[in-house]
């Protein structure tokens, strides 16, 4: 029994590592692209790798590159990425109910590695989630993201200067590629995107706010307005059914 207890953490780590291989493969091209765009934005390879090491959030890192290219201040970048990643509170709360380990320290450390993909894999697992399993799942995913980010920067450095400069266009294409599938699934996302764009245009044309604050405020206002409209519609539906 003692041998089984000792081998269990290693076995759980192995299971998590195996579950994370598909995530690591999926992260590779996205991280490579991030590295390429980081090089085009003007980040050094050290800054690119450090961002992936400390942030480990694809959408937030892409948005940060866009804001950096616009000369946005550090506070606006932090606030914007916080808003983008606020969903992590919900994911962590949900996963906490399934997490077998009750050690707060383990959960606090490993929560850094919770992304949309690692959360999805852990959440659908039939068995309870353990710290060993999460460590294996996160370690392979995290390694792929960081290493491929650096490789992307190196590849970008070897490209012709004209092609490096043109890579900035790919950043906006990436955002469009992320947005369109969501817009197809939900009309709410369409209205949210259009409203945020309108607010941002107004703030930019009137020079009322800096570029960074215009994006932050446009995002917050559009999200609040859309949710208020959604709540009013739900109340009306509820009254109709009574």
UniProtKB/TrEMBL annotation:
<feature type="transmembrane region" description="Helical">
    <location>
        <begin position="20"/>
        <end position="38"/>
    </location>
</feature>
<dbReference type="GO" id="GO:0005886">
    <property type="term" value="C:plasma membrane"/>
</dbReference>
<feature type="transmembrane region" description="Helical">
    <location>
        <begin position="70"/>
        <end position="90"/>
    </location>
</feature>
<feature type="transmembrane region" description="Helical">
    <location>
        <begin position="133"/>
        <end position="156"/>
    </location>
</feature>
<protein>
    <submittedName>
        <fullName>4-azaleucine resistance transporter AzlC</fullName>
    </submittedName>
</protein>
<feature type="transmembrane region" description="Helical">
    <location>
        <begin position="211"/>
        <end position="229"/>
    </location>
</feature>
<keyword id="KW-1133">Transmembrane helix</keyword>
<keyword id="KW-1003">Cell membrane</keyword>
<dbReference type="Pfam" id="PF03591">
    <property type="entry name" value="AzlC"/>
</dbReference>
<feature type="transmembrane region" description="Helical">
    <location>
        <begin position="162"/>
        <end position="180"/>
    </location>
</feature>
<dbReference type="GO" id="GO:1903785">
    <property type="term" value="P:L-valine transmembrane transport"/>
</dbReference>
<feature type="transmembrane region" description="Helical">
    <location>
        <begin position="187"/>
        <end position="205"/>
    </location>
</feature>
<comment type="similarity">
    <text>Belongs to the AzlC family.</text>
</comment>
<keyword id="KW-0812">Transmembrane</keyword>
<keyword id="KW-0813">Transport</keyword>
<dbReference type="InterPro" id="IPR011606">
    <property type="entry name" value="Brnchd-chn_aa_trnsp_permease"/>
</dbReference>
<keyword id="KW-0472">Membrane</keyword>
């Amino acid at each position: 029994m003692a041998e089984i207890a000792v081998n269990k953490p290693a076995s759980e780590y192995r299971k998590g590592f195996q579950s994370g291989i598909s995530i690591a493969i999926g992260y590779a091209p996205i991280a490579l692209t991030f590295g390429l765009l980081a090089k085009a934005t003007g980040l050094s390879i050290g800054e690119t790798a450090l961002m992936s090491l400390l942030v480990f959030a694809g959408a937030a890192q892409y948005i940060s590159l866009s804001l950096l290219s616009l000369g946005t201040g550090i506070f606006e970048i932090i606030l914007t990425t916080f808003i983008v990643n606020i969903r992590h509170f919900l994911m962590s709360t949900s996963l906490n109910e399934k997490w077998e380990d009750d050690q707060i320290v383990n959960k606090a450390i490993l929560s850094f590695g919770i992304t949309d993909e690692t959360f999805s894999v852990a959440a659908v697992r039939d068995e309870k989630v353990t710290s060993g399993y999460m460590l294996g799942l996160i370690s392979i995913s995290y390694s792929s993201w960081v290493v491929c980010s650096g490789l992307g920067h190196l590849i970008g450095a070897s490209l012709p200067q004209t092609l490096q400069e043109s890579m900035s266009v790919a950043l906006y294409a990436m955002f469009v590629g992320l947005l369109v599938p969501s817009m197809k699934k939900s009309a709410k996302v369409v209205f949210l995107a259009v409203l945020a764009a309108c607010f941002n245009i107004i703030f930019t044309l009137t020079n009322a706010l800096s570029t960074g604050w215009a994006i932050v405020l446009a995002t917050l206002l559009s999200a609040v307005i859309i949710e208020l409209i959604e709540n009013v519609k739900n109340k009306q539906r509820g009254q109709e059914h009574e």
